[in-house]
Amino acid sequence: MRGGRGADVIAATAPGKIVVSGEYAVLEGYSALSIAVNRRAVSKKSRSLAASPFLIELGKRLKKREEDVPWPVHVDTDSMKWRGKKLGIGSSSACTVSAAKFALPEISERELFELCLSVHRQVQGGSGGSGVDVASAVYGAAIDYKIVSGRSEVNAAVIPDVHFVYLYAGEPQKTTKALATSSMLKKNFPKVHRDRMSQLGEVSEELLKTERPKDWIEMLAQAREAVLALQKDGKMAIEIDSHRRAALLAVECGGVAKSTGAGGGDMIIAAFEDRDQKSFFQRACPKNGLIQIDLSIDPHGAIIESD
Predict the structure, then answer these.
(1) What secondary structure does DSSP assign to 61-114, as a single string?
(2) pLDDT of amino acid 6
(3) Between helices 91-103 and 53-63, what is the axis angle to 10°?
């Protein structure tokens, strides 16, 4: 049962995420489309705390609160890995959000988001990502995430009836490293950076407005082209060999595949207009050396389980 006021909380969970479009550009004020996925971090009461910098920082914040909170916690993120490797679906954010939700089950979504975003920025030295991964862990489903005058705006996004396949590129990617490379492009070639962010951001915002499946897939293909332009101009390793193989195969099957988030590894998303195209792609994945991951969009954000 999902808990309510007065219930005994036995666990709290939060989903992972995939940033479909607007990667990098979200830091420049454009909208990103992010989906929560059904691999969850699970927090339960524990006698000791894992040596996670995010949980340690969260614990410091909780100690300052007036109310008693259940702490420390154990957070299980094994479902967010493949053969011991992180899938790159925001396990650190889901871990922090689920732990905070367990400690503060009555907290509002906005307060939960602000708390966990603050924790992440503190641990990352005030730099790092946009917070979209934290938002997906808190709110779930599909979201339109945007930073306006320094404040994060989170709105529900609607995705048309598109059929997805999720693939693991095979190597974990450090988002901070990718963002640092993008920052160097901004510093050394500001006009080029501005043009690439504009291309990424405008395509993402059009994608969020698109209602027909066929048009949505075409816009996703444009989003991939924008990523490739950034990769070329920034000399960045966003698409690796597995991304290219997935993209070529998806086109053969009538769809599109692109990197997600910072790229350079982690997850690939493929989209198709009908189930037959999706099935043909799935059958061809193994002989093309592509690793399918059983995922779906999770409609729920952070939730508690209680007696």
Answers:
(1) HHHTSSS-----EEEE-GGGEETTEE-SS-HHHHHHHHHHHHH-TT--HHHHHH
(2) 42
(3) 20
pTM: 0.92
Q: Are residues 197 and 78 in the same domain?
A: no
CA–CA–CA angle 50, 51, 55 (5° rounding):
75
- Segment holding 197, helix H or strand E: helix 190-209
Phi, psi of 100 (to 5 degrees): -65, -40
Q: Within this chain, do residues 175 and 89 fall inside the same structural domain, yes or no?
A: no
192-214: per-residue pLDDT in tens? 999 999 999 999 999 999 999 99
Q: Which domain holds residue 221?
A: 163-293
Q: Note the pLDDT tens digit of each residue in 88-110.
A: 999 999 999 999 999 999 999 99
Domain count of the chain?
Answer: 2
Give the position of tokens 């708390």: 115
The answer to the question of residue 256 being in a domain is: yes
Question: Are residues 192 and 78 part of one domain?
Answer: no
